[in-house]
Every structure is written in C-alpha cells, then in structure tokens.
Amino acid sequence: MQEQLYNAIVEMKEDEALALAREELEGGRDPLELVDLFRKAVEEVGDRYEKGEYFLPELMMTGQIMDQLAEMTKDKLKDEYEDSGKTRGKVLIGTVKDDIHDIGKNIVRFMLDANGFEVKDLGVDIAPEKFIEEAKQFEPQVVGLSALLTLAFDPMKDTVEAFEKAGLRNKIKIMVGGAPVDDKVCEYTGADAWGKDAVEAVSLAKKWVGGA
Questions:
Q1: Distance between CA 206 and CA 142 in Å, rounded?
Q2: What phi-psi label fits residue 70: left (phi over 0), alpha (psi between -120 and 50 degrees) or beta?
Q3: 36 and 140, same domain (yes or no)
Q4: 60 and 150 part of one domain
Q5: Nearest CA-CA partner of 12 in 70, 54, 73
Q6: For 131-154, how does the pLDDT look when each residue is reduced to its tens digit (9 = 90+)?
C-alpha cells in the first residue's frame, strides 16, 4: 500500500493519495514512516521538475496534496511527540527565494510546534531581506531555511550571508533542509547544520536552545 501511496502522490492522484494515507494512519501506521514516504515522493517530483518532465502546475498540485497530507498527520505527530511545559524557544522558518515549495517546511513546522517551540513561518519564495526584517522583530534563536530545488542553493547562501551582514549571525543558529540538501550543500551555504527530516530538525533546535 505504501508503494501505491507513493505513486499516487508522484502522479498527483489527489483523492487516491488522501484515501490511502488515511487508511494507513487509521490502521496504526507510524506517522513518521509516512512523513518519510512523503519526503521521498516530493524528492521524485522535484527530480522530474528539474529534468523538464514536470512543470510549475505539477509542483503546485503536489504542494496542495502534501498540505492536506501534512495536516492529516499533524494530530498523530502531536499525539506521539508533544511535550508539556512552556515554550522552548523561537524558530523562524521559510522557503528561500526562487523556490515555491513548502511541503517539507510544513511538516517541520508541525513537529517544532508539537515539541513546544514558538514557530513563525514566513511561507515560500522569501528574499534574504525579508528573513532579516522578520528576525529583527521576532528575535528567534533558530532560523530554518527550506528548499526543494537545487537552484535555491544560492538564495540559501545569500540568506546566510545577509544575516552576517546584518550583524545577527552570532545571535542565531541556522539550519537548512529539503530533499536535495546534504553536507556539501550545508557547507556551501554557511549554515550551522542540516536536517534530513523533521525529527532531525527538532533535535537540532532542542540542542541549540538547551532543551532535552
């Protein structure tokens, strides 16, 4: 069934994808397993986009499907990972300039929220200047930069450099993430670390703000 769900997402069969995901969750499937499957499906869609097999409408349709899937898994994730107590800290997140995908970012936002962080989500296609402006007002300890497309690596780098120029770099920790992100990309952008999934993103945020 997981292969069917994967294919339904990649082929943008919205009703089928939602029905299969609901069946998996109601059948007791670990929501994190589904989140990982979503990530792999999104990576495939991104690959097809960069090869010219898919175009902007396909990206947007996939994003709409994934928004619904992420919302569907939100309560399950909260049930399993929610911590009681006061806010751990503040996290500012957004998808960088020239990238309009927010699938992975939304899942990370849900997980951070479930683990007691105050999260401000700027959305997609966010310019470095906007990150700086919002960071000055929100005063986060952690900034998360998301990207699905390889063409967003330079905007990620530009955003990290913008924090440096604004004199804020030593006050925050920056994490990057998204399907194509790895150690080399993290080093290229100048970020402090990268997370391969939402669980790792939460672990990094906890470590940086002194949480358990």
A1: 10
A2: alpha
A3: no
A4: no
A5: 54
A6: 999 999 999 999 999 998 899 999
